[in-house]
Write a structure and sequence with these properties.
By secondary structure, the protein is mostly helical. 86% of the residues lie in helices and 0% in strands. Helix 1 runs parallel beside helix 3 and helix 2 packs antiparallel against helix 3. The longest helix has 25 residues.
Length: 81
């Protein structure tokens, strides 16, 4: 079952990467919602806490990486607006 956790976490993580790469290349964040990029890392933070509580490595690992990417995107949104 833990394999499914890694697969689900990896798929969630991969959804953030194209946006982060596009921002890194173009510096353009005009069409992004700041509210979305505040809430997404915040939700990852709570998933990390829940993963620690459950001692679920897939949940902790994938949400930690996704949290970092989300914070990067939020930083760029705030910087470029």
């Amino acid at each position: 079952m833990e394999l499914f956790g890694y697969i689900a976490g990896f798929m969630s993580l991969v959804t953030f990467v194209p946006q982060a790469v596009k921002i890194a290349k173009t510096g353009n964040t005009n069409d992004l919602s700041i509210i979305t990029w505040i809430l997404l890392p915040l939700s990852n933070f709570f998933w990390i806490i829940y993963g620690v509580h459950l001692r679920s490595m897939p949940m902790m690992l994938t949400n930690s990486i996704t949290f970092v990417i989300g914070v990067y995107i939020l930083y760029k949104c705030l910087k470029f607006k």
